[in-house]
Design brief:
Layout (H helix, E strand, L loop, with lengths): L2 H8 L14 E26 L26 E12 L6 E28 L6 E27 L2 E25 L11 E27 L4 E23 L1 H4 L4 E22 L6
């Protein structure tokens, strides 16, 4: 038997090495989202009133405004945004750690107008007024942003994770109240058939801070392009402001006023679907 035959029989064939995907590196992307909004603006507390030098209290001194209810939540709907992330996966590990920041343009607004007529006559003599209270409320969530950690396992081209962190967004809230009185016959202090008994407004606009938690999936369509789906619950907490309504000094005398508190809250559920570009290819 020749030595060449023996060498061929003893030759060891190389075993191909399969390199698993590695998710380490930065990424950017865009997404569309559908949001189920909760929260809104709600009058919550009547702070009482100061009676003018003439006449008695108008209806809101006994809590009329706080009983009208709030705006309810802004409308549900579609919006979109952008995000950036960085993930780290150690060699020979199937777990991935990451950080992600995103921005969603929402611009969801809800308005409420409530008008209540009080049949009991109030106001200065000689002719009491029949009063109508009109309360207007507005609540608007302009945008929402988050800065989060995420962590989860990978299976080849699939990355599943849980996530949580800081959420913040621009929330605008406003409230106004006008009391009008119909005096029939006209009194000596109000010659018109209808007079403004009291009016006032207040507002609060600013960035509210809270938290977000959720979970998501990413699937690699190519070594650089992934399809992502994510759910987030966010709660931006509550901000409060005071509305002061002043009595007409001619009808009620100087110094008459009352005030109430409005709470502004923003929370909801977001479902996101988008594409992400990986700066480092998965297999390298």
């Amino acid at each position: 038997m020749s030595t060449s035959v023996i060498a061929a029989d003893l030759e060891v064939k190389a075993i191909p090495v399969v390199i698993p995907p590695n998710w380490t590196g930065p990424s950017i992307g865009g997404f569309g989202t559908f949001t189920f909004n909760n929260g809104g603006s709600q009058p919550t507390k009547n702070l009482g009133c100061t009676i003018g030098t003439v006449g008695g209290p108008i209806s809101s001194c006994v809590g009329a405004v706080t009983s009208t209810g709030g705006t309810g939540a802004p409308p549900d709907g579609f919006s979109g945004g952008i995000q950036a992330a960085y993930d780290f996966q150690a060699i020979h590990s199937f777990m991935v750690w990451g950080v992600v920041a995103d921005f969603t343009w929402m611009d969801k607004q809800v308005d409420k107008l409530v008008s209540t007529t009080w049949p009991v006559g109030i106001g200065p003599p000689p002719s009491p007024f029949v009063e109508t209270t009109t309360a207007a409320l507005s609540h608007r969530l302009l945008w929402l942003s988050t800065a989060r950690l995420r962590f989860g396992p990978t299976w080849e081209r699939l990355y599943a994770y849980v996530t949580g962190g800081l959420a913040f967004g621009q929330v605008n809230s406003s409230a106004s109240t006008v009391h009008t009185g119909v005096n029939n016959p006209p009194s000596t202090v109000c010659l018109a058939a209808s007079c403004v008994l009291a009016s006032g407004s207040g507002s609060d606009s600013g960035i509210q801070f809270g938290y977000t938690v959720g979970a998501g999936l990413q699937f690699a369509l190519t070594p650089r392009l992934t399809l992502g789906a994510e759910y987030l619950y966010y709660d931006l907490g509550t901000r409060s402001y005071t509305v002061q309504v002043n009595y007409d000094p001619i009808l009620f005398g100087p110094g008459g006023a009352y005030s109430y508190v409005v709470d502004s809250t923003a929370r909801g559920h977001m479902f996101k679907l988008g594409l992400n570009w990986l700066f480092n290819p998965l297999i390298r």
